[in-house]
Structure formats: structure tokens, C-alpha cells
Amino acid sequence: MAYGPRFPFNEIAFMLLICAPDLISGQLRYSILEEKEEGAFVGNIAQDLGLNVRQLSARKFRLSSDDGGRYMKVSLDNGILSIRERIDRERICRQAEMCTVSFKTTLENPLEVYRGVVEILDVNDNPPTFGNGSIVLQTSEASAPGVRFRLERAEDPDIGINTVVAYTISFTEYFSIKTHRTESDVLIPELLLDKSLDRELLSSFQLLLTATDGGTPQRTGTAQILVTVLDFNDNAPVFDDDIYRVSVSEDAPHGTLVLKVKANDLDEGLNAEIAYSFSDVDLRRARHLFSLDPYSGEVRVEGPLDFEEANSYSLAVQAVDHGSPAMAGHSNVLIKVIDVNDNAPEIKVTSASNKIPENAPPGTFITFFDVIDRDSGENGQISCELPKNIPFSLQTSSNHYKLITSATLDRETISEFKLPILARDLGSPSLTSNKTIHITITDVNDNAPRFAESTYNVYVMENNAPGASIFVLTALDPDLEQNSYVSYSLVDNFIQNLPVSTYLAINSMNGTIYALRSFDYEELKNFQINVQARDAGVPPLSSSATVNVIILDQNDNAPVIVSPSEQSGSAEVLRRSAGQGYLVTKIMATDEDSGQNARLFYQMVKSTDPTLFTVTKNSGEIRTARSILQTDISVHTLVILVKDNGQPSLSSTVTMNISVLENSTEGITESSTLVKNSGYLSDPNVYLIIIFSCTSVVFLLIIVLLIGIKCKQDRSIIQGYNTPSYCYNRGDSQGTFNGRPAMEETLRYPGTGRVVRVPEPHQYSVCLSPESAKSDFLFLKPCGAPTSQAQ
Fold this sequence. Notes:
The chain has 791 residues and is mainly β. It has 7 domains: 15-121, Cadherins (Immunoglobulin-like); 129-231, Cadherins (Immunoglobulin-like); 233-339, Sandwich (Immunoglobulin-like), CATH 2.60.40; 346-442, Immunoglobulin-like; 450-552, Cadherins (Immunoglobulin-like), CATH 2.60.40; 557-668, Immunoglobulin-like; 702-791, no CATH class. It has 6 helices and 56 strands. The N and C termini lie far apart (166 Å).
């Protein structure tokens, strides 16, 4: 009796490392027998990948695949991959020729992903079984030797050599077993009639059918064959085709006609009436998927089909007539399931860090993800898309994708991305799926602090209190945390040859500027400093702003009376013939303040005769208010008040003595009398007069020389300020008075937006024209200008 081929099998598991681990295409491959106990050794991943076992825990070594994680586990102590629970190959893969469980291993810091496959090898853990414990056959005694009877084949969920390889029956001279393989490599047993039957001699047979697999050790299954010998029905039904081939779409609805089988019987009557049925019982699930009408032979869809579960079915169909005994004809129906696009792509993201610094260069890796579509052909071909105008792109290898940056990032513009990944297959209609990946952009110190303006003007009233705050600078940094912490400092500089730190201080935390001393407008009118803002990033970034500090004048100087001076005396001489409005003299005063604080007003506060003299309020000119009468006294005392326009107002006073002389004829007479009086011209007196005259002339020359030098120096200083300078010169034979140069300045008052150009009255230089001596008017002209001669 012939048996099918047998193949040796080694129960010891083996491992095969196909290629070195590669982050994209490298793959570990192991093989292990099914039914191993929990904790059984699969392989040493750490050793095969060349990893340091001590770093597995620190680098968070783990299995990241759902399938592998269910059946296997890895030890962080030694890197050994072992069985988590008992694996039943038949439950996982049914009768697929190749049964594998895929897994991924992930390490962090740096991120490394390795793919692996564990092939589950079949062991002979299932014996062959028959659907029923007995097989009932009927045959006519007229059956000729050589007739074959199709038997129910044994079912063995194992594969390969472990499945059924041979059938045997108990010995009998009438029957033997023959086997043959179908196109789908299924071993079919048939009972062969070796000798003609004689019902009257032996009407039935009981045979033991044994199915044997090729495993080690071999397993067997048995069934009873009951053969009943009947009176002959000598023609069995014959199908039109030995094999029917047909295709049906997996989405075919219930009741869809797949095909119609047809068999013919040459007998007549009941022996020619045929009933169709499935004769094979091994594909029980297929019976729930397809139905066969016993009268019409129509095969229809009975249940839902799934191409991904099974892409074809092989059904054994028999046609049995109603003869006595009944005879049957057999045929095979091969049904191919056509795939439809009924599975959307699945996106599986490998765990990775979702934070990336904003200075990451283009091409920086973010994460891996796989896209799987259970459909086949174009229905299983996938394309992935990202939104446009984002700084990210995809790199693909087969259905494995790598998400990387494609442009520079800026956290201050966009701090977080929610990337929708769209996976689309090429089926018709196309199916899609979405997966959103969250990416947080972390900050780097790429922004220097920024001031609102590059230059600030600060106005400080003089005589300020030392230690008071005068201004607050604020710089903003759009970075985060310590990269945005701003500190302030003064840039080293000098003000009037002194370090800026002797004048000002700044709060490094909030940018408040404090004055360390009281300012004097008359000594320092303005100065400039630079403030630096520096963040706390690594490396730190900084920027600076210029602060113009402008000192505002305060009325802290009283007017100073220049003329008449204490040295020249305060006595004036007036002829009694002077009429009303006669210019007696002019009070000249200066004020070191500026603006309104230096605007002077003149007022007579005391007079011997208040009706005789008046003072012009703005010019300080003293004039006669009426004609001098003979009855008026000869000496008058005036007290003149000079006050400024500041708040509060400051003032000074000067006392003047005015002597009233008689008319010129009277003076000549008296002079003649004095000349004639020899007592007045004694030798000592003459000497004294000469000495006094010489001394006066020398003293006058020195004063004129000093005043001229002073005017020249003032003119040079004023030219440095680009401001014209003038001197006030009193045009009399006594000489000229030169005042201080005048300088215009600009006053800007905070909060008003007004700019006022204010001259300093005490800083001027004008000259009195000689014509002033000839009239009651005071002529002013710039120093250095040519003096016109009297006509």
C-alpha cells in the first residue's frame, strides 16, 4: 500500500539573523515552535543587535508592536526575547503556509527602531479527525471491480508534513484505499472495489478507516466505514465538468448566484432523479458561506465573504440519484474571491519625542509610522499626504514613512503643530484614514531683547533729590523662560570726565534709572547714556538704547546787578535843567537761570521824592518823571528792586544816589571862584589830583583791556554753540561793559509734546553805542561791529 512522502522534522527551535539591524529596512528573524511554555527562549535581541545590556533600561528598550507584545516579552536585564503566553499556531494563522508574528523594538536617546519577525513553526499537536465517527456507503452488487467511492477526508489543522499524509483501511479482499491530491494539494481518500460483490453472500462490510499524519510522533484518526450492498443501479450521475471554476466579489450580497452545477444520469425513473449536496465536510465554514440547492444545483452566497480571511474556496459537490442503491457522481467547485476596496489604510505611529527645538535644521527626524492596508492590488497601494505650506515632509520606503523637517522653524511664529496625516489607497472608490501628530516647538535663544525705541529723551528738573527714579526702560524678549529674562545695565561712559556710574544707577531687574546726585542746570544741561538689555539665554543676546537726559531749569538763582557795580559806585549826577523823560541812568542785571526764570523786571521800592523819578519795568531805565524844580533837594536816594519771573520769584536791590547840579552857568561861576581861590590849588592838592588822575586812567585802561579779552573769549564759546553772541556796551566816555554770551537752548516738556527754544538772558554779549551818550536812548549793537561816528 503506497503512502504519501514523509519529511523529517527537528523539534529544536532555531534562530536566523537575516541582516544587521537597520533603522529602516533591517529585520531580525527568529523561528520557534508553537505550544512552547511561558517564558520559553526565543532569541537574545541585545546580543543579536550588539547592544549593551546595561543600557537597555536607561534607553527605555521595549517592544512597540501590538502583535508581538501580545505573545512575547523582552527582559531588560539580559535582552532575551521569550514567550509571554502559549502560542497556538492554528488559532493565529489557521492553515496558512507561513505563520509569522511581527514586532518592533524601540530604543530612545537616541531613537532607534528595529523590526523583527518570529516565525511560528508547526508541531504535530493535532491528530487527524473525521467529521463523523462513521461513513455510510451503499453500493450495488452490480458494481464492477475498479469502482471508486469518495470518502470523507480527515481534518488536521496542522500544516506541511504534520498534516494527513496517508489513509489505510482494515484488511479485506474486496476493498482497498486509493488516494489522490487535488489542485489545492488536498489528499483525498477513495474506497476502491477490488472484487465483485455478491449481496446474497455478503450484504455489508464494516471497515476501519485510519488517517495518519507525517509528524513525529505520528498521530492518527479513525472512522468506521459501513458498506451496504444493494441491488444494482448501474449508472451513476456524471457532472458536466470535473472541476468548476468561478469568481465572486467579496462584497457580494446574500443570495448572489455563484454558479449552477449540472449532472446527468443515464438511468431512468428514480435511478435518474438527482439530488445535489456538498460531499466534503472539512470546509464547514464554507458551508455557512455558500448554499447548494439540492434540486437546481445552484450555488449561492450564504454568508459574508472576506478576501482578507480567505481568497478562495474549494468545494466538493456530489450528485446522488434516487436509485436503489443510490449512486453518486462527484465534482469540485473552485471559487475565487475577488478583492474589493473595503479596508481603509491603518496608520501606526512608532512612539517618538514630539518636541523639537526651533533651530533644528531641515531634515531633522521626528518620528516613524507605518501604513497598512489589508486589501490587495491597487486597493492595497497607499499614498500619504501632508498639508501644504508646512515645514515638514515625508520620506517613504515601501509602506514605511519617516517624518522630517523640511524648512527652518520659528517658535515665536508657530509654537505647536497639529499635523493631519492623510493616508489614501488607490482603490475605486478610494478609502482614506487620518492621523494627527502633535509636535511642540521648543524655544532657543534666538531673539535679543528689543526696546520700543532706539532713543529716549528724559527730562529731569534740576535740584532733584539724589536716589529718586527719573525714568523706566523696558525691553521685551519674545523667547521663553530664561531666554526671555532681561537684565539692564549702563554701558561704561563718561560725563564731564566722570564715569556715568557716579551720576546714574539702573535697576538690573526692571530697568528703572535712578539719579545718584542732584543736577545743576547751570553746570550741566544735558548728557547722553547707553543702556544695555541682556537676556539670560546661552549664549546671551543683548541690545542697547540711547537715553538723552535733559536737565530742566529751576528758579534757583537771584538776579545779579551788574551796573551800577559796587566797584564803580552807585552815584549819578543830574543837571537841574533836565526835562521830563530825561534818561538818568540804566540798571543792568543778569540771572544765571534761563527762560522765564531769567526774565527780569525792575521796580522802584523807595525814593526820596517818588514824583521825580520812574523806572521802566522791562529795561531798567531811570528817567525823570517831571522837570526838576528849584525847590527840589540836591541829593536823591533811590532803592531799585530787580526780580525775575520764576516761581517763586527771586530778587535783588540796589541803592542809588543822584545828585542834582545847578545849571552850567552857575557851575562856571563857581569853578572860576574855585580857581581864583588859591587855597584849593596848593602844591599837595595838585599832586594828589595828578596822582589820582593817572591812577584812574591806568585803571580804566586795564578794565577796557580785560573787557575786550572777555568779549573775545565769549564770542569763541558762543561760536562753539553755533549761536550769535552780543555785548551790552554803555556808550559813554567811561568805557564799555561786556556781559556773558547768550545761548539758545531747546526745552522739551514731557507730556505736552511742545518744543520751546529758550534763550538764556544772562548769557549774552551786546555793546552800548556811543550815540547813547548823546541822547536819552540806549543804543545796542553786536560786539565787534563797526561803530558809526556821530554826525
